[in-house]
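Posting this for the archive.
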Amino acid sequence: MKYVITESQHIKLTENLNTETINKVSTNWFKKQIKQGEDPHIDGSLLMFLNIKMYEHEYIRLLDVLRSFLGDASSQVLESKSEKTYDTNDYPNISGGYDFKFIISGKQIEGTQVLFDIDILPGGEVTLITDGETVSLKDAMWDEDMGLEIQSEVDDVIYSILNKEISHYTGYTFAVNHIEY
């Protein structure tokens, strides 16, 4: 998606970033995504264009705009994204040396936030950076020396994937209530 504005226009836009500006720019952005055959969503280009960093106050406003733009479709998208099996191989920029699948086994919507229960499916693997060996994810997670670090990194991968898939396509924020390893 390509937008052409001058540098001075961009500076003025980001200096005066208010709810009206976020609403106007992102709504036009979502409309262009639809015209290009995409589902409306927040992507890195929009965040960079508006100079918004994740989890800042403006980011939450941007999620609100997306949810409002989608209307009832927001909960339908949430439902469909909650029913799929996530595979880290589909997210090479996020997953690093991790190769596993997970599902959302439960969800509870509380206002604009969703609480998820996550189940990691059997058969996952991790390639260790220490020696390049690929081992069972389950064994690595319960290893006495590296288990806590592996669990933390698995959590990070899950959060990153869900942020990309849930928040950026539905406008809902989320928290993970429980991860079943």
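The chain has a mean pLDDT of 91. The chain has two domains: 7-70, 74-180.
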